[in-house]
Design goal:
This protein is 32% helix and 32% strand. The protein has 174 residues and is an alpha+beta fold. The protein has one domain: Gcn5-related N-acetyltransferase (GNAT) (Aminopeptidase), CATH 3.40.630. The protein has an eight-stranded mixed sheet with strand order 1-2-3-4-5-6-8-7, sandwiched between helices. A hairpin with an 8-residue loop joins strand 4 and strand 5. Helix 1 packs across helix 2. It is globular and about 40 Å long. Bound molecules: coenzyme A (COA).
Length: 174
């Protein structure tokens, strides 16, 4: 569990599952993420996130707004199929919560955890190249362009843009 100025980053709870499924079924949210996900798939992801967090101390955890307890979405660290040697930082918020800096605030806390607590040498972020909002989050965090690649998810290829940040850059960022 992590606390930032406005947010609580915590494991998924039963009451998150409905808004989590709703945001994953929203075509605006999933524009660059592939097909909208079923409720079963969303439940499975939430359970897997909680299991990984319990076992390894990091994960793509739920994001809660502290003032009113609203479930905003999820953000955090994960290990993905394409670059298994690096941990990846990611974010996904319900449409109504975009434009308020919540993704950047949550991700900055996870970068701090990755570099400071876990001692990672670097962290990457991967997105569909046309996902400008996601790339803007990477830049706000101080991550820099690493490379472009054609990656495949569930057998479907996409043009990916990869940003990265080293522990040194993070330390000297302030
Ligand atoms: C990617 C995504 C999380 C970005 O959300 P976002 O709200 O644009 O990003 P942030 O939370 O960093 O907010 C930044 C915006 O809030 C504004 N803002 C307001 N208050 C702010 C604050 N206190 N701090 C920082 N920014 C603030 C910024 O000016 C910026 O506005 P702009 O987009 O008009 O330039 C969101 O678009 C999303 O969930 N997309 C769908 C899922 C997805 O594609 N995920 C990425 C997969 S790789």
């Amino acid at each position: 569990m992590r606390t930032t100025e406005r947010l609580l980053l915590r494991p998924f709870r039963e009451e998150d599952l409905e808004p989590w499924a709703a945001l994953n079924a929203d075509p605006e949210v999933t524009e660059f993420l592939g097909e909208p996900l079923s409720r079963e798939e969303c439940d499975r992801i939430a359970a897997a996130v909680n299991e990984q967090y319990a076992a390894e101390g990091f994960g793509f955890l739920a994001v809660e707004r502290r003032t009113d307890g609203a479930f905003l979405g999820a953000a955090g660290l994960s290990r993905e199929q394409w670059y298994p040697e690096d941990l990846e930082i990611g974010w996904r918020l319900a449409r109504e919560y975009w434009g308020q800096g919540y993704a950047t605030e949550a991700a900055a806390s996870w970068l701090d955890h990755g570099f400071t607590t876990m001692g990672l040498p670097r962290i990457i972020a991967v997105t569909d190249t046309p996902n400008h909002r996601s790339i803007a989050v990477m830049r706000r965090l101080g991550m820099t362009f690493d490379h472009e690649a054609v990656l495949a998810e569930d057998g479907i290829e996409f043009d990916a843009t990869v940003y990265s940040m080293t522990a040194d850059t993070w330390r000297h960022r302030a």
